[in-house]
Amino acid sequence: MGAIAVYDAKKVSVIVGGQNITGFAKDSFVEAEKDEETVTTHVSAQGDVGVAINTHSLGTIKIKLNQTSPYINYLVKLARTSEMVPAWVISDNEVKEKAGGTKAMVNKVPKAEFGKEITEREFEILVFDYVQE
Questions:
Q1: Which of 74, 111, 122, 125 is most buried when burial is the number of CB atoms within 10 A of its CB?
Q2: Domain ranges, ordered by start, for the chain
Q3: CATH code for the domain defined by 9-132
Q4: d(Cα 114, Cα 59) in Å, to the nearest integer?
Q5: Is the pLDDT of residue 9 over 90?
Q6: Among 27-41, 56-70, 118-132, which is the least confidently predicted range?
Q7: What is the C-alpha to C-alpha distance for residues 120 and 23, in angstroms, rounded to an integer?
Q8: How far, rounded to the nearest angstrom, does the alpha carbon of residue 25 sit from its chain's CA centroid?
Q9: Strand blocks (E) in the chain
């Protein structure tokens, strides 16, 4: 029998401005990615290939919180004040991963929805020095 890998969502942390965010929505609760490709290519009519290294370091972290999360007001405040803070997603599972940066801003106040059930708030965090390890 092959190896069995174990993943535990509780071993994933989202830290924004030094605050360990909690109160996530069910299912997929965080995404992190670089905004553009690392390289772009150009192929001439005769098949010559050129490669441009894209040196920008912009990335985006999206988190989904339940409307009952104690961090809704904190993240809304960061969006309203345009405060720059560090933002990281860290997985301490068997496969260790870390994504984010030291310079980030919450992009906007999320849509507020109220109903019979607990609803979600999605925050988009722009990271200006994004790295993924």
A1: 125
A2: 9-132
A3: 2.40.30
A4: 30
A5: yes
A6: 27-41
A7: 10
A8: 14
A9: 12-16, 19-20, 30-34, 39-43, 49-53, 59-66, 85-92, 96-106, 120-127, 131-132
pTM score, whole prediction? 0.88
Cα distances (angstroms) measured from residue 56 to each of 37, 39, 64, 73, 107: 9, 10, 26, 31, 18
- The DSSP code for 24 is B
Q: What is the pLDDT of residues 44-100, one digit of tens each?
A: 999 899 998 888 899 999 999 999 999 999 999 999 999 999 999 999 999 999 999
CB within 8 A of 2, min separation 6: which ones? none
Residue type, 15: I
The amino acid sitting at 125 is I
Summarised one tens digit per residue, pLDDT across range 73-82 is 999 999 999 9
12 sits in the region (left: phi over 0; alpha: psi -120 to 50; else beta) called: beta
CA 39/CA 80 separation, integer angstroms: 34
